[in-house]
Amino acid sequence: MSDSTRVRAVVLRSQGAPVAVEELLLAPPGPGEVLVRIEGSGVCRSDLHVRDGDWPRPVPVVIGHEGAGIVEAVGAGVTSPEVGEPVVLSWNAPCLRCGACRGGRPWLCSGGSAGTHRLPGGRAPYRDAAGDEVLAYLAIGTMAERVVVPAEAAIPIPAIDPAAAALIGCAVSTGVGAVLRTAEVEAGASVAVVGLGGVGLSVVMGAVLAGAGPIVAVDRDPSKLTLARDLGASAGILAGHDGAETTAAVRDATDGGPDFAFEAVGTAGSAELTIGVVRAGGTTVLVGIPALTERASFAVYPFVDGGRRILGSAYGSTVAARDFPLYARLHREGRLPIDRLIEERISLDGVEDALGALRRGEGARRVAVP
Question: What is the mean pLDDT of the chain?
Fold first, then answer.
């Protein structure tokens, strides 16, 4: 470990307990790996699920999976990315060998190392002060000053604000991709978006890019409704505890129900509302991921009788090498205002407080800038 680099990173040692910043030793990149200096890491609800124990994960682990930075070194055999290039990190680096990858669906890759939270060779990238292994969440663990990741996870992009670039790694690709890639929403289709965190607001931006209309945004926070309208939503509906009342309001705003309804919260209640609101022939797209124990139900007869559909959208059906540079270019052109999603720029020491704010539903996206 003589060539290791000392870095500060946000470590989760016990699920359900607070995260804390620690100094770790980061090993140099091996064959097929790259070293990236992180310039921005978004605080995502998936990080909160891991921190709170909703999704059982091995610990200790450096959390974070939504990051961007600059390549500082590459391991043997790496031809792309190159040293000095700005990159966005993909939390599902494809293995390029499994059936999903060979079939052109790398977002469903089952052969990568992300699920092990280790690098492809099986090693953990970090050691702590006691010399013990520390994992990296989804093999990238972006809440650190520097990371070593598989080269396939580091996607070169046109240079943009690193905090905005970081959000391309998860929220933007998940939300915009749900519209453009998973659902393939056509121009003129009516859209409802339930839940206006970073992903839901990205769904709104994706619907605007698709030329959809009307676009109806639904949330319990009036400030998020205002932001959604600023991003192009036609109307905002303040959700109440009465799902039937909220459903009626959405139907009124979309002439009987939307063609597409996107769920971006990740709870059984919001999934049930979204499934129940679409018009005959319409499509519900489930984007938010709930706790593992969550179950939802719906009335089957009207769903079948109305020829409705449910789609699950994993990572916005993203092909990172194709979509990350596209979203960065759209941002540079002013057509994808990712920066509007940034609620606050924080230090690594502020991540635990940011997770608390996310748990309370406050604001859109906070980005840690190491």
Answer: 95
